[in-house]
Structures
1.
Amino acid sequence: MRFVIPVACLALLLLCAGAIASVGLTVKTAGALVLIERAIGGGYAFLWCVGALGFGRLASPLVPQKLFGWSLQLACGLAIALFLSHLMGAIGAYSIPMQRWINGIPMMVGIFMLIHQLRESEVTSSSLSTNISPVIILIIPAMAMLWVGVSCPPGALWGTEEHGYDVLSYHLQLPREWLTLGRIAILEHNVYSALPSYMEAAYTQLAGMSPWGARLSMGAALPLYTAQFLHAGFALATAILIARLARECLPAARPFSRIIGAAVFLSTPWVLITATSAYNEMGVCALFAGALLMLHIEPLHPTARGLIIGGLLGVACGCKPTAFFIAALPTAAAALVLLPRKRWIPCAVGATLAGIVALAPWLVRNWLDTGNPVFPFATDLFGSGHWSAEQAARWDNAHTFTGSIADRIALFISAERGILHPQWSITLGVIALSIPITLLRKETRKMTAALALAIVVQIIAWLFVGHLQPRFLIPVLVPGCAIIALACAAVTTDRAMIVGGVARLAFVFATLVPATASIIHYLAQRDANPNIMLLAGTEQFNGSNLRDDFLRLSSSEQDSVLNVRSPVVYANLKLAADPTNKLYLLGDATPLYYNLPLVYTTTWDTTPLISALDRAGWSLPVAVDLLRGDGITHVLINILELMRLRDSGYIDPRLNEELANALTNHAAVVRSWIGKDTYTILLDLNQPPPPEEDPAQP
């Protein structure tokens, strides 16, 4: 009987996920079969997390054994595993012969350490299964939605995130290029490679140790899904740590309240959207939750506490540099409330030292490559590396909000970027209502004050640091959902049956509403047909599902097929057939699905056309000859993207749609894609443009 609850939860999870994945499909079982297939393929992400859990044991000497626990071990292990992933990439582990096995060594060592630990401990399958509360059913809808979301190909979902533009541009594109290069390094055509990229390093490691890793540069699909599964795993780890944090804040809290806090976090649409994409937000959230948890564990030596907190937050900043403001500073603020004054300095010293060590691989890598350890930041202080002053200024302007305080507050409240954004659902409102409930109770007042202060610091940081992107507020949910759990415990403990029952229903409602909103939001994607993309997979984007049949078609039949296909499919099927072809993306910076020799740049980097014009004294015909000399045979111009970037001020002002249109006078137009949201032109640099018609001729 001890396995009844786990088996029932797994069955319900499959049923719920299968039901979501079947909406709109003719064959109702097709969606569920795809989910199972991709979950099996994503098993590498699960093994990576298991290995990380084993590595967490390395932090146990700093914490008394009775206080350590599996949740804290998980947080420490994730930080250590991320650090090792980046360190291995920085020293060139991907270029070592048999790199697949080299990349798998850390995971195997971590798993061995976990097995050894389980053999020594008193943990049994019986104790693990009986510790699962039936209330965990409240998390099932969110987990089902996570499973469906990570099984969709990158770029298929989330219109509010420009269908994963950042994923296609660098979160998954960089691992692809780093595997080919053999190490993690700064790529001068993609400035995002200069960011710490600890999550991207883990994606690279996962791809490198899988049988399909070497084929990632050719568009292998499995490593792309595995990366999404790994990021979703960090979301689940965050939920676990929020539940443990609530227990440390209020040991008398029942499992119901702890699960409520975890379930609200996972159910919030913003979490669903980011967790199912190969982003880095969930890495920040998990490590931030671990740092807050460390503040509540007593008794503990202040230096040991600082070392663990600093290590966790240092790696969080390695996942996303804004974590310094949205996670590290809030943790420091909470520490001022929770820790005695005499412990502040030793804790701060330990945290600073551990944080520097955690970020050392990135700092050293950037310093060696650019002379600036934090490039592309602080260019005025440390230098701009291979960038010009104009490029550094454009980057700074684009990542800084210059509006007034009133403008900032208006955006904070707005539905466009702020707390009224529909993807928060009711979660922020529930947090706001929970704070006074917990502040009024003596046993939760101090913990709530610390967590609430952390939220205040996060909001201030969001308002005054960066460019006020809505998803940058997601870490607010970590202390916020812990407060929800405390409020749930406060209103459901020692209450009359009717009052307690109503309170429980209210918190269940607070969980199910955002979960329902997440499901509705998913089902509205891709003109209310997201499951079509689920079934189609990455093959729909790169055209690999057509390749075999396409090669057997005549030239006219091939043209007929390509008439209704995207530029990516056209390039992969038509241009890639000739190995001498080399494509240059002008305006577009999302190269993930292209499977032929390619040149591209992000909007911040120097594009080959501008570089050629500078060398040619701004003679366009000479510049075109220089592009040909660099081996470029075709240019794909995204006119609408150039216009958008020009209007935003992101792009080099010399590169605009007028210059792109002028380029068409020096090469043949092979194809054009013109529609409501599309204006793309493909040029063949080896073919001259058609002769101009003589107006004197009839």
2.
Amino acid sequence: MRPIFAIVATLACLPPVTAQRKFHPDKAVQKGCDVLLEMQEGSTKGQWPYEGVYRVGGQIPVGYHVGGTSICARAILEAPGYEQSKERRAAVKRALEFVLEELEVPLMASGFKGGYDVRGWGHTYALIFLLRLHELGVVPTGLEKRVAEKTKWLVDTLVETEIRDGGGWNYSRRRGPSSAASPFMTAPTLQALFRAIANGHSVDESVIERALDALDRGRTKSGGYKYSHGAQSANKIPEKKLRFMDVQLGAVGRMVVTEATLMLAGRGDEKRLAKSVDAFFKHWQHLKDRKQQHGTHIPPGGVAPYYFMFAHRYAAQAISMLPASKRKKQHRKLVKTLAKEVEKNGGWNDRVFDRSRNYGTAFGMLALLQPDLTPVPSWRPGMAAASDAMIGSWQGMDGGPLLHIEKERVFLYESDELKIQRAAVQPASITTWRGAAEAKWQVKVDGDSLVLTRDGATQLLQRVEQRPAKLIVTPLELGTGQPAEDAIPAIREQLRERVEKDQAVRDRATAKEATEEDRAEMRAVDRDNTQWLRGKVAEFGWLDVARFGRKASDNAFLLVQHSGDRELMLGVIDKIEADVKNGELEGDAFCLLYDRLQGYLGKKQLYGSQLSQLGNELVLLPIEDPDGVEARRKEFGMQPLSGYLKLVEKAYGKKVRR
């Protein structure tokens, strides 16, 4: 018999380049990755500290270390080719380990010290980095638990550290709890929290509402935004009455990020959004004049040099939210501005410090990548309740599908087939996984009606109070009969013949030259074997070692494993476990079947035996409590997970992504 492997079937600043030099955005992003990889520093070579004029005890504050590292790591993570680059994956893992470690130091704890404290800036961009690792499914193996814990901690910390009076966030709080909110920090922090909410984290809606109110109050009559603003609204203040730091000339970076954030929260306006992008290009030269200059807030616009690349990054986001008729033209225009400022080494830098090139390069890369980035999720009041409203059972109109939604899995019955998949329920959508392949459903609940959009088709379903029987999986009832002595040899022989046929058809169906006919034949053999085995199990119970012998029970196990029959598997899994604990079957057989059954039930595996093919690589499917997987494998006599995966790679000639 072939070895058992479980592959799921779904298996000093440089001058700008000359105008004659050709600029290719895709190549520029890849070159940016090279720049960042070269700049990663520290004792573990795991960080990209942002360097500005602000110091704590003469040193770059830890918030700048964490925030800068998170921004740079995210840029590398988002760039095409990440999963194929061992060097980039290793760099992001080192960065993640650094960020997780630094979040433990006292100066990154929840709170605020003195009149100026940039830890919140680090909290915001660290949260975005950790969430994107999770969303992309690329959290390094062994760090899943720490990432989950720190993600929740960061969400809670940002909520706790809002400005008590008036809402929002600011790294300058000279008036204590009555300090003014900064749009430069409040808008990105809101976007981080929107993403967290979409990933199932709980956030007090009043915190979001207060921060949005703070942004709204900061808008001036010209459409710009004050550098910081407190309880008084600036909506009616004309340009001539604003202090020099608040005029539109210097507000273009604040305008684009704030208008984009307000649009995400349903408080924006397309005209204002378009106006913010126009203002960015109109006043771009003023941003350029302040780039790589000393001093921070200099008249007439009060622009600090470090807002040059910030403005480009968030202008790109604002452009991506414009109507399609305007989007392409404005993005091309933005690419041209970035092409003007790229340095000979392929990076961008808006400061006088060499180290700030990492931050500038990362924001330049994200600006170029923006059209292909996963959009920040939108937010509306009551979204948490909207997510909860999806939970339950639904029936399609006019013979449509049956659907049952839980927090972490969905049951879908259509075309006479029940599919159960892992899922993440968000306020307006459900992300589902079939093996390693991800799909997104758009969902809208209105009372007892649910509008489901998937694969380009929209269906209307109505809530049903009682879960339909077709959406319930029950174990196959085992028989209690005893086979006649002369019947046992015949059953053994039938098992042997069926396994021989199973293996022969699988050899053909899994060969490189296999045809669809070969695969169809394999499915037909599986159906026939399953039907036969169900009949025997329903009559005699599990074909155990005590009555049928070791070889026959092994053969019966193989047929169960290949059956894909949830009811059959549920019915016999405990009996197989009993044979294993009695020393009559191998432990890895039970673990393999258990994990496969978990997958068929839309749950995470427990022993790490299941992989799925995605493109040209194999992906280890999610593990429940990954920190305990080695102990569980050892209990059943299984080899360490790393050794198992090496055998899989050798057997299939493909790398395994964990």
3.
Amino acid sequence: MRNEFAGLLALGLIILGCGTFRETPISLAAPAETEKRFRTSEGGAAEEIRRSAEMGTPSSLQTGLNLIRDRGLGTSDFGRVMAGVITTLTQKVYPNSGARVSTKIADLPQTYRYAKILQEAALGRYVLPQAGSQDYLEYVLPFLSLLQSSNPQDFAEALPHLRQARELNPESPIAPYFMGLAYERIGPSEEGAEMFRQAWELSEECYPAALGLARVLNQLGESKQALRILQDLTLQFPDLLPVKRDLARAYYQAKEWSRAESSISEILQQNPREGPFLLMLAQTLAEQKQFLKAGSVLDQYGALDTNNPQYLFLRARIQAEGYHNADAALTYLRSLLNRPNPGDEVPLYAAGLLLASPRLEEQAEGRSFLEDLLKKPNPPAEVFDIAFQDAARREAWTEAKTYLPRLQETATYLMKAYRVEQGLGNKERALDYAQQLQARYPEYEEGHIAYTAGLIALGKYREAEEIIENRLPSLKGGTLKGQYYYLRSQLRQDEDKTLQDLRSSLFEDPQNIDALLAILEIYRKQGDARRAGYYYRQAQSFDPNNPRVRFYDRLYAE
């Protein structure tokens, strides 16, 4: 396919030469005798060439140029103007064929209306079709002037002409393809998707229509269908770069990070300095927790631009999530917050970091960002999630409960609901949420832990012990295993065995506040202020604003 495109364009450029349009205005009306010669002087070949141009597929355009060459029409006015039409359509409709195309417009014979339409289109000026015209190309060629336009009104005014063209030649994909572009520029709609679909159904060679259909479907929220179209196109056009680029973007937008990484990397192999794709790759790596690789990609992008908002935001994420350096992350975020219109993503991320800070002044700053986001119409679920986390951190369970209806019902939602009911003392309702969590997400270990804790809260010790003894040996270690040790400590009757389980919990998770405070309380009751103070200071260093930790401030704070 790429070789056919290259041959087509090379032939067109040989026929046309390297001249440019004249600047002298001419009448748009062609003499009647000129139009008559146009249709008759070259016999049947003229109509065949015209039909090939009207069809507008790569193969039909190639056929048109072959006819011009084989019939020796390359030096005639008719042959030159039709070669100009065919070459321009190829360049504009299939611009990424792999062929090199001159940026100059050929010096076409000015006796033909097509020449004037192409000349005006190159200057961004739309030429209206002649009243009563039955010429398909007169209706579609002016649309080339709008390909760089961003004015929806321009496209709305062009649509009636394209509808007329479709009636004149319902077999050509060019008119419905241009209609799809017009609807897309006006605003993504089902009408635009339908026009792209019609163009693609008329000719599978018209891959730009399939790309347009995928774009619109993605904008309409039909990302899976868009992905299927692009995946099919890669099988049909395995070497076509525009298809590969759109597929990489589709994987990225669908958050299929592993596939996006592979597709984007393939694009960057051809152009390692393509900034937008470098940023996309950095994000796909960050989403997969590959922070060192993401940082390396951002270093490459930094050689191009260190002021890009997405670049600075990703730098902040890597510092916060990869290196747990909230201060460095906030430095990047504040540089963005000081800009006009930073959007919602930056203050939301900053709010999350600030609210988790041990510094009260930073918590207040984060709460200010959060309150502003909550005041906006229809805040996204992420805003309520941050608000819930802030309220839960303060153990303000009544406030936390107000945010639950705005969260999506996932495993984490059920866990949040369980925590709220436990915090409010509603033990039966808490256990109900934990039971739902365990039943609907059996692979989610936190659900089993919540259910076990709910059983203990209701005094159902034997059931809880059975779960712990069944699940504890299967865990390799870490935070989850530490939580089971903590839960088992609550079932112990012997204080030494209780301390043994609590120390095992801290071995797996040194920051387990529950275990630290449980040991503190044991030593406090024993009157061992020194050891109690030791565990208080550990808990205080990990979570100084935790209400349960602050309860002991008056006893052990220095």
